[in-house]
What we know:
alpha/beta; Rossmann fold; five-stranded parallel sheet; 6 helices; 5 strands
Amino acid sequence: MNKRIRKAIFAGSFDPITNGHLDIICRASKLFDELQIGVLFNPNKKGLFTFEERVHLIESCTSHLDNVKIVSFDGLLVNYCEENQIDTLVRGVRSGADVEYELQMAHMNRELNPNIETIILPTTTKYSFISSSLIKEVLTFDADVKNLVPKVVLEELKRKTNRGK
């Protein structure tokens, strides 16, 4: 008898990956046989880190998780899921506003493909205010973000911005 492999994907830009992202990744990795981290590539958007740098940072931060795989794709997430036999989307939320947005996305994704479910995981309270955008913003004022991002990310942020502590 063949055992069904449960695959999920957690997609985002991860510019940069934060401790909040890692919280969701670590917890979701315990729920599935395979968790893919889908790094979105948007050629029209200029991020702090290149696509390759973001992938490298995520790989560095998740290397201890045997069932996590880093991937990238173009187009609709539900199409990627269908092509790769993934039936669950993992989404992290920090606030009520995130819940509302993710609920709309979950309904749209379900409309596009009723075979794909969305699992919404609330981040751990101590990370509930962290966002990649906020990290980059406070770094412009030389703020201390060492408790908000993994060490490898902090080192790269310092190198990239000549700031941060």
